[in-house]
Write a structure and sequence with these properties.
This protein has helices at 25-31, 41-51, 73-83, 100-107, 123-129, 135-142, and strands at residues 12-13, 58-59, 86-91, 111-116, 130-131. By secondary structure, the protein is an alpha/beta fold. The radius of gyration is 16 Å and the shape is globular.
Length: 143
């Protein structure tokens, strides 16, 4: 697991220890003038280059924050393709920045699986828990 971008998320899910309105982490980071944590892509590349010959089979990008917001995410996909390593992705389903079709074309060829964070069976529940979510758009992305 590479903690690529734990401080980047476009939702504020109530249960999230990083981004919830109840969490002190982001407020403290901002108040302290601390920059967002983003893993240097060169470190990821170095680890993959070293571990691929030893049997690395799968990469899991950020489990806190939205991994598709990591600006170097397409380069992670390219590393996976280059080394025949699978990508195990958990996303909030917003498909930030590119839209679902463009992201699907990029990630599907290298993914072992894609998991969607989904926290409500109704629009009201989903939006109360996943603040910032667009229920109809997320639902359309799943189809």
């Amino acid at each position: 697991t590479f903690d690529t971008n734990p401080d980047d998320c476009n939702f504020k899910c109530t249960m999230c220890e990083q981004h919830s309105e109840y969490s002190p982490h982001q407020r403290a980071r901002k108040a302290g003038g601390v920059r967002r944590r983003r893993m240097d892509f060169e470190l990821i590349a170095e680890v993959v280059e070293q571990m691929a010959p030893l049997g690395l089979r799968e990469i899991i990008p950020s489990t806190m924050g939205e991994p598709l917001m990591y600006k170097e995410f397409p380069r992670i996909v390219a590393l996976c393709a280059q080394h025949n390593i699978k990508l195990n992705l958990t996303t909030n389903g917003s498909f930030w920045g590119r839209g679902v079709d463009a992201w699907a074309r990029l990630i599907v060829p290298v993914c072992s699986d894609v998991k969607f964070s989904w926290n409500g069976a109704t629009e009201q529940t989903q939006q109360r828990i996943m603040k910032g979510a667009a229920f109809a758009a997320q639902l359309a992305h799943l189809k």
